[in-house]
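User: Predict the structure for this protein chain, please.
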Amino acid sequence: MPHLILASASPRRRELLAGLGLRFEVRPADIDETPRDGETPASYVLRLAQEKAAAVAAPDGALVLAADTTVVIDGEILGKPEDEADARRMLGLLAGREHEVLTGISLRETGGRAASHVESSRVRMAALSAEEIAWYAATGEPLDKAGAYAVQGLGVLFVETVTGNHSNVVGLPIPAVYKLFAALGYDLKSFVPRSGYIASPRT
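Assistant: Here is the predicted structure, written as structure tokens:
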């Protein structure tokens, strides 16, 4: 079984993979994430995912999974806010409107073969008062999140609808990852130990 490496420091991505019972190693990639002139949001996240996968040193036979997620509204890429004031600005842009969440993912063998994909979801944010925006920004949660909110955290209070894959909005579209493994000839199910999954009790 190939050694699986996640080229990301994101705790959300770690949790999503761990939730499947997968065994993997975390090796964050350090690359320049500055958008290039004229680069579309989809091209941007795809390029970063591919560069992250290529930047991680991995043993022979390993598989490296990398991803990059961004929020897009009015053609503007909203990465992680610089500070609390920038988080308030971003939330003001998103409030009461629908925006796009894009995640680029890349699965790469140490031999050089790779498969990549860009997943898109639509999110509608509730109308927010200045007080709500200030309160949420002050919690600190938005400061390390693309678009200044976390759908898996306090930000869920303000998310009205998600159209498309929900795990994509969290940061890693699991069904798309499953397809990337298949594209390289691997069955992701075989990476799940038989004892790694515990069914939830019926309620």
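The domain at 4-191 is CATH 3.90.950.10 (Maf protein).
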